[in-house]
From TrEMBL:
GO CC aspect terms: membrane
Residue intervals passing through the bilayer: 20-37, 49-68, 89-107, 113-140, 200-220, 241-265, 285-314
Domain Sugar phosphate transporter as annotated: residue spans: 20-315
Keywords of the record: Membrane, Transmembrane, Transmembrane helix
Bilayer topology annotation: Multi-pass membrane protein
SUPFAM superfamilies hit by this protein: Multidrug resistance efflux transporter EmrE
Protein name listed in UniProt: Sugar phosphate transporter domain-containing protein
Superkingdom field: Eukaryota
Protein's organism: Chloropicon laureae
Organism classification: Eukaryota, Viridiplantae, Chlorophyta, Chloropicophyceae, Chloropicales
Length: 321
């Protein structure tokens, strides 16, 4: 009987682990850069056009997906199987666009730290919406973990020092639609007409960019033209070259954040990625305090800790079920 090579297996395992850690590092870096520069562009540099900024993110995703699949052929290109699949992707794109748009909008009225605290409650919406739309039912222990998740988010909201109603509304809307998108995305990735993650991201970005372009023309075109004609540069003393550099690298990083997210889910599983995502949330809170001087009350920090504990328990129970 032929035996495997332990040394070769060890090297292969080590290489896979290193590759996984590289994607984790890329996800942490690109996501934190996007979140923090979104906040800086919208609330400090006068670029108060969250719909247009989100559209730029999707356009960047289309461009780099084209390079990776059509020009360099690093990733395999897949075609849509039916008109029904196209409609389902269009619906996913609408959810994705609304989620990102509301998240960016919230930066006008809320801190990055508060956004991460509310966003950590996404598993609650995923569980509820999964049952409503697809009849997904888990063990009672899974639903029990939702209490600390929601309770912690409520404590964080109560302890938020700079809470505004609009900031809370847009963050809740972003978290709700993110949960809806997660449920629908899982359906498309696991259904009969499934696409792999990079191709689903590419087709979704096409529809999302079109939706966001129309919305931006309807709601932001007049104020954007007025902004172009003015000399306003926001509240900070930023040089124009720095502003345009951010406006260039922010969408590029958005593609890397989206791509690394899909790759990590493909290389591991959604539950592992959820743990990675929550660690990323902690980093973003730390960077928000460090770079923007955001003050986080002890009560808000306590609520966030309770929510993260609930999410860890949720992940464990989901894995068991």
């Amino acid at each position: 009987e032929r035996k495997g090579n332990p040394l070769g297996d060890s090297r292969s395992s080590g290489s896979a682990t290193l590759r996984f850690l590289m994607w984790v590092g890329l996800y942490y870096g690109s996501n934190s850069f996007v979140v923090l520069t979104n906040k800086q562009l919208i609330s400090q540099m006068g670029f108060q056009f969250p719909i247009l900024l989100t559209c730029m993110h999707m356009t960047s995703t289309i461009f780099f997906s084209y390079l990776m699949m059509d020009v360099y052929q690093v990733l395999k290109k897949e075609h849509l199987a039916s008109a029904g699949q196209r409609r389902h992707i269009g619906l996913l794109a609408a959810m994705f666009a609304v989620s990102l748009m509301c998240g960016n909008w919230s930066f006008r009225y809320a801190s990055v730290a508060f956004a991460q605290m509310i966003g950590a409650s996404t598993p609650f919406f995923v569980s509820v919406l999964g049952f409503i739309f697809f009849g997904t039912v888990f063990r009672w222990q899974v639903y029990a973990t939702l209490f600390p998740i929601v309770g912690g988010a409520m404590i964080s909201t109560y302890g938020e020092l700079n809470l505004t109603i609009l900031g809370l509304f847009f963050q809740l809307a972003a978290t709700f639609t993110r949960g809806l998108k997660t449920v629908w995305q899982g359906h498309l990735l696991q259904g009969e007409e499934k696409l792999n993650s990079p191709n689903l991201l590419r087709y979704m970005a096409m529809d999302a960019a079109a939706i966001l372009a129309v919305l931006s023309l309807l709601f932001e075109s007049k104020s954007f033209i007025a902004w172009l004609r003015s000399d306003e540069e926001g509240d900070g003393n930023y040089r124009r070259w720095y502003f345009f550099l951010l406006l260039l690298f922010n969408p590029m990083s958005a593609y890397m954040a989206n791509m690394s997210q899909f790759m990590l889910i493909q290389m591991s599983n959604p539950l592992t990625f959820q743990v990675i995502g929550n660690t990323k949330g902690l980093l973003n809170v730390f960077f928000d305090i460090l770079f923007f001087g955001t003050q986080v009350s002890g009560l808000a920090a306590l609520g966030y800790s309770i929510t993260l504990t609930g999410v860890a328990l949720y992940s464990r129970e989901r894995r068991r079920s």
